[in-house]
Amino acid sequence: MKATTVLATLLAAISLASGFAFAQADETPPRVAIVVGPSTHPPGTHEVAAGGRLMKFCLENMANVPGVKADVLYQWPRDPAVLEGVATVVFIGDIFPPMRLPDPPAILAQLDAMMKRGCGIVCVHYATGLRAGDVGENGEHPLLGWMGGYFATGCNHHRSVAKIFREATVTPAAPEHPVSRGWREFTFDDEPYIQNYFGPDGNKLSAGVTALATSMLPPEAPQREIVAWGIQRADGGRGVGIVMPHYYRNWKLEDLRRMILNSIVWTANLEVPAQGVQTTLPDLAVFEPGGVEPLPPAAKKPKNQP
Ligand SMILES: [Zn+2]
User: Fold this and answer.
1) 166 alpha carbon – ligand 1 mean position (Å)
2) d(CA 237, CA 223)
3) How many angstroms separate the alpha carbon of residue 95 from the centre of ligand 1?
4) pTM, whole model, 2 decimals?
5) With bands split at pLDDT 50, 70 and 90, how would you rate the model's confidence at 297?
6) Which of 52, 194, 225, 300 might form a disulfide with 72, Cβ 3.0–4.6 angstroms?
7) Under a CB-based contact definition with an 8 Å cutoff, are residues 61 and 92 in contact?
8) 10 CB-contact burial (10 Å; exposed 0-12 / middle 13-18 / buried 19+)
9) How far is the CA of 8 from the centre of ligand 1 (A)?
């Protein structure tokens, strides 16, 4: 009999005899909280609520990481117990959602306590974003420590750039990192933010921060831009920032989806399988977006005409 089996039997016997139930760590499924923030983007873009539901579906149907439970929260829960024991929290929305939901200081304080107990954090696309009014004069914000960087949009201390690139190639930057498992370089039409902010020391990555994916952008003056990064924090927690996808249809890209799901699994302190997280998506319309495809560009009005 294995030692663990002996222990389990012993605990069961004691619990029967004493009337107490012994909760075993492996009996509770790992829980992921997906927080959907406000968004005003047109159909087919951002689609934060549908994106949240899509991630829940994927996380609960991973072929090779069974037993994960995910909840989509459309507002910050009033009852703090909802987030107790959550392994990682995923944000999707326009700007880092805690700054756009009611009572940001209270949310940041609760998040701080969660991070200190080792909870993970993942932000997707615009949820990596902070504006001038959200940060201190020199760009200070707790998200920098929790996640290792952010998309500094309209900030004074640093200017990140948002632009649709018709062909951006995303390359794995840390092949040995668990998040890199099972996805390869891919090219897509999207808005991966560039010149993201990593800290006051000349924008160098802080200790514990790893570039996970890079892209040579913009095409007219290419530099190796970091478009996904991860941090192993001193408090034991992990964070990942991924500055895409802008277009809802890009969730269909298996490599991008795997990078995001690997990140969620990694920040939940679970083992990322050697082949990366395996998922099969149903039709994207199932998650009820405003539109699977973006609206066609509005016809330009001829100049100098009434
Ligand atoms: Zn966007």
Assistant:
1) 13
2) 30
3) 10
4) 0.89
5) confident
6) 52
7) no
8) exposed
9) 50
